[in-house]
């Protein structure tokens, strides 16, 4: 499994993890939603569930479920600030299209 995290995203994730010391790691995956079909999910994980894969990315436990894994393989997770807005940005080689607002994507 190959997922990478840029230095700004790594710093932001470490901030979240420091606020929740009991977290098992960061859950990264996709859910069905939006006009293009899928949206990314990034959240703190309480525990590793059956069917989860855990990847150590420079000291961060990244937890990805079986269903999401083929859709996020090779993704680069970044974090950007633009004016008052700050968000994670995903560079996914599997995405074949995105909706106009950038909130959802298509695979396939």
Question: How would you describe this structure to a colleague?
Answer:
The protein has 108 residues and is α/β, with parallel strands linked by helices. It has two helices and nine strands. The protein has a four-stranded mixed β-sheet. The radius of gyration is 14 Å and the shape is globular. It starts with a strand and ends with a strand.
Provide tags for this entry.
single chain, 108 residues, alpha/beta, four-stranded mixed beta sheet, three-stranded mixed beta sheet, 16% helix, globular
Quick description:
The protein is an alpha/beta fold. The protein has helices spanning 7-19, 69-72, and strands at residues 4-5, 25-33, 37-45, 52-57, 60-65, 76-82, 85-91, 95-98, 105-107.
**Portion of residues within helices:** 10-25%
Model regions low in confidence, pLDDT < 50 over at least 5 residues:
none
Quick one: overall form?
Answer: globular
How does the major sheet shape up? Answer: 4 strands, mixed
- What is the count of β-strands? 9
Rg computed from alpha carbons, rounded to a whole number of angstroms: 14 Å
Total number of helices: 2
β-strand percent reads over 45%
What structural category arises from helix and sheet content?
Answer: alpha/beta
Output the strand order for the largest sheet: 3-2-5-4
- From the N-terminal CA to the C-terminal CA, the straight-line distance is 19 Å
Average of the residue pLDDT scores: 88
The SSE string, one letter per element, is EHEEEEHEEEE
């Amino acid at each position: 499994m190959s997922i990478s995290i840029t230095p700004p995203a790594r710093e932001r994730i470490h901030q979240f993890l420091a606020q929740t010391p009991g977290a098992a790691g960061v859950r990264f995956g996709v859910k069905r939603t939006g006009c293009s079909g899928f949206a990314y999910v990034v959240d703190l994980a309480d525990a590793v569930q059956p069917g989860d894969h855990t990847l150590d990315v420079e000291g961060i436990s990244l937890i990805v479920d079986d269903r999401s894994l083929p859709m996020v393989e090779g993704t680069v997770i970044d974090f950007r600030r633009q004016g008052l807005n700050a968000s994670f940005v995903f560079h996914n080689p599997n995405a074949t299209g995105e909706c106009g607002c950038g909130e959802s994507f298509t695979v396939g």
